[in-house]
Amino acid sequence: MADPDTWNAASSGGSRATAGIAFQARVFVYWAAHATAGLVPTLGLDPLARIESVGSEVGYAVDDLGIALSNGGFVFIQAKAGLSRLDGASQHFGKALDQVIEAYVNGIPTADGFRPLREDDDRLVIATDESGSASFQLSSIFARLRGHPRDYPLEQVAVNQQGRRALTVLRESLAARWRGATGTEMHETELRALLRVLQITQLDFSDPAGVDLRRCHGLLAPAEDRQNGRQAFDALFKIGVELGARRGWFSAEYLKAHVRKASTMRGVFDLPTRPEPFLERSEADPHMESPRHLIISGGPGAGKTALGIELAYRWADHFPDGQVLINLGGYGPGRPLTLEETVGSLLERMKAPADDDDPDEISRYHRLIESRKLLIVLDNAGDSVVESLLPRRGGSVVIITGRSNFGGLVTQANIAFLRLGTLPSKQAEDLLRAYVDSDRIAHEAEAFERILRACGGLPLAMAMVGGRVREAPDLPLSSLAEQLDDRTTVLDVFELGEFSASLAEVFSWSVDELPEDLRDAFLLYGGAPGPTLGVEGARVLLQRPRAERLLRQLARRQLLTEGADGFTMHDLVREYALQVGTADAGTVAFIDEANLRLLRHYAGRAPELERARSWTPTDIARYLAAYEYGLERGFLHEAVAIADALIERLWHSGRSQKCLDILDQLLVPLEGTEKQPYFKRLRAVTLRRLGRYREGAEAIERVLRDLDPARELERARCGHVLAVILSTSGNDEQAIGYYRSAVDIFASNGVRGEKADALNGLGWSEAALGRLQDGLEHCIAAARIHAELEEDTSHAADLDSIACINRELGNNGRALEYFERSLELYRLIGHNVNTSRTLMRMAETLSSVGDLVRAEEARREADEIARMMGDDS
């Protein structure tokens, strides 16, 4: 069997068969290396799919190479050396297209016949070694095309003139070959479908490292020392030549065995098994390919060690003298390693020779790493020893992982810093799916989603719940989901019966070492209502003027995350804090006392916050949590004050159903109090906002029947609500009477803002009945009052009414001016519901004057706001 250099020499001598087999062998090596390393074959395929086997003579015209994937997908590969012309006049290229078309038409051969190609799982690949050809343009075009909207012009995937020419030539060549193969014209849908599975790829084999074999070898021989990958390349190349000669198939396991057999020992290898499954993390992308000193920081369970090991494998080619990982024990059972213990262990692992002339091991360690190219992973590090372990010069590199922020090191320019948080939702789902059988997910999709949400994007949590699923294959996912929904059992799910396989135990390693003031702050924060605390809330809760300093120290220990809205604690860390906080009565009383302080603080601020122009989503979440805590603990006065401030903000954000839930909760304990009619009135408004007009009208009419006739002002407010419900449901004639009565009573009682509210409603109903000029005058009068009082919500409603009436009068230009002014205010106060509604009204007006571009922009913005709010607005 000839070696690669012999085959290269032969292929340059002009033998077409020899050249074809030589290039085919190299193409085989490229994907065989991916198979042995457990890598995805790229090509825009599923990142979780792996190569199961590589072979040839697959039973159809595309017979150069084939790849079978673990998810049932298939890749057909035409290996075409010297394919310099990608045009219809090239017989070589034309033949490749004929074979691609035949494979597309016939589909994938299976035991039962053939199946159609699947866009997401299959590829038809033409692989060439020719550089500088149109393959460069077409390769990027195919990649963009797979994410290209199907109804957009195909030419838009080409970003320059050269790309458009290459695409045109390809379309013409495919159309001609299609006619020859099928006797029919190629439809646009057939062309697009074919292009989505087609790939033309230029492969560079000028260096064996181009096929990634050095990294591949490191994966396959964890018990051996590394070498530069040449023997592994030779082994796979010989298998590739054999495949070309006898048309064979080779499993990934077979290929791995031959790479191991070809390997020779060199250097030091002392890494754990490569993490599996491992998903790429977007925040790590800038660090994946360029070795340098790197700190990987993150909270417990964030995946720091897994990323450190993965990087060590990926960077291994750059460090021929070896790769070593040592656990410094910064967090966990027992004490951390001292500097002397760490250095002694590293010297032993790196097989450093003794030096009688220099018994100082630290000095010997630095001479060793500074004279060689070593990669050292200092895993689970505290702050104390890592700085002394960094090389001062030379080509060695250190990766540090730990829960600390390593404040003394992050300022050094030669050290990169990466903080790992939780996984984004799509990556989290992919990781959990790697642990759970797809059939179980398909049968219990809703339970799977609940489990995914409960894990909160924490990699360790998903690994542990994945372990539970695997060790109990007959346990329904719904049972796990129910345990995760129950606060008393949630942490039990993340418990695999071993000391280090317990999420609570892993969290404890960070908490147990906290000094008393930080431990108190951790327990108080974990037991406080709400997802975050602002600086003022933290001071009230912790009773410290510089409470944020304590919270920032917890953030440095990765127990909190600091953001623009304050400090947040992961839900599972919070569950652990609650578990610890309820362990004894004294701690429970300590937390309850602090929470009552916080609740009273929120209740005291409620009137002020109610008058604020806008609330952030974080404000709403904080006050909702405080309300629920107060109601649950029986602090009705505080809960009512907070709810009063919340209701309108929930209306604005499209959460009217939540408002109804709150009001229904409060009406029972408020029975017989002065506040009850007020909250019943708010409930009727909420029913109207939910489109339940009849219920809303009946509810407010009951309030009016029960209300003391002497309470004139409250009766006028209820009448006003009834008028709005009647008007909204199309009964404007009846609404006008209630509006006029409300205007008179509000005027006589000197409540100008409410008088203006009723005037605007009166104007709207007058306009709805065709009395446009009268309606316009009422709305303008309302707008003047609200502007003077700086009541932004009502003023914006007035402007919207004025705009609508002007549109009915044919004054479209004036209408658009008022719509813009209304939108400005609605956006300022965060009134999403009315912003969306006014945008749609403005879009209709723009369409009527022929400004279709702005009309479409307004509709898109309105749709996006509506989508963000959901369906209960």
In short:
The protein is of the alpha/beta class.
- Residue fraction in strands: 5-15%
Low-confidence stretches: 1-18, 207-212, 217-228
- Cα-based radius of gyration, to the nearest Å: 35 Å
What composes the largest sheet?
6 strands, mixed
Percent range of helical residues: 55-70%
The total count of strands amounts to: 17
Record the strand order, biggest sheet.
7-6-3-2-1-8
Shape call: globular
- Alpha plus pi helix count: 38
Structural class by SSE content: alpha/beta
Return the average pLDDT rounded to an integer: 84
| First and last CA, distance | 73 Å
Can you tell me about this structure?
By secondary structure, this protein is α/β, with parallel strands linked by helices. 58% of the residues lie in helices and 8% in strands. It is globular, with a radius of gyration of 35 Å. The N and C termini lie far apart (73 Å). Residues 1-18, 207-212 and 217-228 have low confidence and may be disordered.
